[in-house]
Amino acid sequence: MDQGQHRTERVVLETERHRISGLLTLAREGYRSRLSDSLNANERGFISLTDATVERLDGRGGPQEHAFLAVSRRHIVLAVDAQG
């Protein structure tokens, strides 16, 4: 992947049971340069994150770290840019 054309952005996604934070790879500018573009991409069923942390919303157990994680778009109930 050409790093000049892409950037990563830390995002937080929530499902009914989990809070997931991780790095989302986006285009540097234009189409697919926003979190909302990834959420609205009908041709993709999953959001891919790297350097991800998964926490249960009920507080059970500790956070789990994953180098890579794919989250089903249809299970996401909240998505925010964690950087601002």
Features:
84 residues; mainly beta; SH3 type barrels; five-stranded antiparallel beta sheet; 1 helix; 5 strands; 6% helix; 51% strand; globular
Describe this protein's structure:
The chain has 84 residues and is mainly beta. The protein has one domain: Roll (SH3 type barrels), CATH 2.30.30. 6% of the residues lie in helices and 51% in strands. The protein has a five-stranded antiparallel beta sheet. A hairpin with a 3-residue loop joins strand 1 (6-14) and strand 2 (18-27). It is globular. The chain starts with 5 loop residues before the first strand and ends with a strand.
List the helices and strands and how they pair.
Layout: E1 6-14, E2 18-27, H1 35-39, E3 46-56, E4 64-72, E5 78-81
Antiparallel strand pairs: 1-2, 1-5, 2-3, 3-4
Give me a quick take on this structure:
This protein has 84 residues and is mainly beta. It has one helix spanning 35-39, and strands at residues 6-14, 18-27, 46-56, 64-72, 78-81. It has a single domain (6-81), classed as SH3 type barrels (Roll), CATH 2.30.30.
Structural class by SSE content? mainly beta
- Please outline the major beta sheet: 5 strands, antiparallel
Q: State the helix count.
A: 1
Gyration radius, rounded: 13 Å
Terminal-residue CA separation: 26 Å
SSE order, one letter for each helix or strand: EEHEEE
Quote the beta fraction: over 45%
- Overall geometry comes to globular
| Quaternary status | single chain
Taking all residues together, what is the mean pLDDT? 90
Q: In terms of per-residue confidence, which ranges show pLDDT below 50 for 5 or more consecutive residues?
A: none
CATH architecture: Roll
